Amino acid sequence: MGRVIASITTSVDGFITGPDDGPRYGLGRGGERLHYWVMGGPWTYDGGHEFAMHGPDKEFYDELVAGTGAGIVGRGMYDAAGAWGGTNPFPGPLVVLTHRLADQPPPESGFTFVAGLDEALERAAAASGGKDVSVGGGADVIRQALAAGRVDELVLSTAPVLLGAGKRLFDGFDRDVNLEILQTVSSPFATHVRYAVRK
User: Fold this and answer.
1) Where is the Bacterial bifunctional deaminase-reductase C-terminal domain (predicted)?
2) Under 8 Å between Cβ of 91 and 65
3) Which residues of the chain have pLDDT under 70?
4) CA distance linking residue 163 with residue 197, whole number of Å
5) For a surface tag, which of 13, 77, 128, 198 has the fewest beta carbons within 10 Å of its beta carbon?
6) What are the residues whose beta carbons fall under 8 Å from the beta carbon of 19, sequence distance 6 or more?
7) What is the per-residue pLDDT across 86-113, written as a single tens digit (0 to 9) for each?
């Protein structure tokens, strides 16, 4: 297996969503500003949007996902994204960490539901073809993986916005973790930092 890479976008004040995130507003009210870098500029839930990533953001993202063979996300992210219309949009199979296993989607969707982090990591590693395993949102999944010592690299994309409310990435996290900066890439919409997690 390759590395386990946890990645997420946060505001300068540490929020990964604005308030009231859910299927209608996946990143919460005002949270769409977190993903200006993904969309290539300002967008709104009500005005429609396209994935138009470009420049330093696209170069950073392309390099990050080039080695990805499978991923893990939490049920909250899966639900807030509307299950991405029923088809996994990411490179490789996507394992969804959830306690509600009964509504497992069909295999052709690219999603596999599991109940625990260890099983999720095992399934993703087995499906990755020896490539990296990406651990995405929500915050709880990333905190669990970091606390368990299972993350090799932490990637934080920080959007230049203060949200003031929502879900915090490290809310309740009480571990002492040493990080080493591997790479920094900036654009008008985000500063992306790749950290090695020193164990």
Assistant:
1) 4-183
2) yes
3) 48
4) 27
5) 198
6) 28, 29, 30, 165, 166
7) 999 888 899 999 999 988 999 889 999 9
Q: Topology of 4-198 in CATH? A: Dihydrofolate Reductase, subunit A (3.40.430)
Where do the domains of the chain lie?
4-198
- Label the pairing between strands 132-135 and 15-17: unpaired
| Residues comprising the chain, all counted | 199
Place of tokens 């905190």: 143
- Report yes or no: 161 and 167 within 8 Å, Cβ to Cβ: no
| pLDDT at residue number 137 | 84
Provide DSSP, 15-55: EEE-SS-SSSSTT-TTGGGGGHHHHTS---STT-------H
121, two tokens: 């990591």
